[in-house]
Write the structure tokens for this entry.
Amino acid sequence: MPGADAYDTYDRLISLLDASRVEHRLIDHAPEGTTDAVCALRGHPASEAAKCIVLRVKVDRRTTRHVLAVVPGDRRVDLDAVRALYAARYVGFSDAETAERLARAIPGTVLPFSFDPELEVVADPEVVKQPRLYFNAARLDRSLCLSGADYERVAKPRVEPVATPAHADTPAG
């Protein structure tokens, strides 16, 4: 069962979409947070899903940034591309506690939007090109569908190539 923070994030997202006059569709389903499984429940290919990963980007010894990388569900985050994008010394996955605090959602429910100024959103160009973009709506039991163009207009992500093909022998990130 989602906690109160999840509902606050969900309500904030719906309010933002309504205020921005974004046409969207809510999809209720069994609780699920893994990309392949939730895509099957929603009935669409993984390429139409927004996979959202919180990254820790160490620019230098004193500067750490947090980035929400949004890639198609059938791809993985290209850490080297993110490192080059920020001219960083190190890029890795954020620890769970930091990711949950910044994303205001539990793993598997992270939105491709940021409601925290410390979390910058970078979306792969393939995400914003989608006619239909699906993602869990800060809840394991409810998803949202909207166009990639509307997503880009409202979320205002930095659009950069940050995805690489997922390989069967490596874990998708």
